[in-house]
Design goal:
two-stranded antiparallel sheet; about 170 residues; single chain; 2 strands; mainly alpha; 9 helices
Length: about 170
Amino acid sequence: RWVQYIYAHAESLAFAGVLVSVGLKYPALFAGELQHLLGNFHIYECQLSWSLNELHEAWRISLAGQGQPTIRLAAEWHRMPHRRLALRDIAPWLMLQDQGTLEYLSARSIEWSKRLEKAGQDRDALELFLARFDPENYIQTPQPDGQVLVEMRVPAHLQAKIKDAQ
């Protein structure tokens, strides 16, 4: 009920950030209460920026002059492993595990693809983002230990662009 309350009343993107962090710690929540967060294109962009900043510990700048207990608590929070994960990597994995998430993200991908018409310079990045949410781009190979190896196969036209950019 609290998640529904936040959805209905929050007026700050900060709430989405906290909920995404909770979902990254407990990814199964993205198949339920937090699924709507997977449907917002901009959340992926913001969260990727957040996760990259965690790697560089840019958050430490704002702690100048704070006491050691505050710095210690902030460091514990920011250094949690799930804070460095990228939602754009977790969502496709979950999509391949959960039929409801697959259906939801497939519908969202159709909406996101409409952005291609106006993408301009960002077209390649958008196409690569959309490729992450196409189940046809994944190869699932059963392993001898009973697990399944999942590998993304980038479409050939995007692979060529990636190679040129490198």
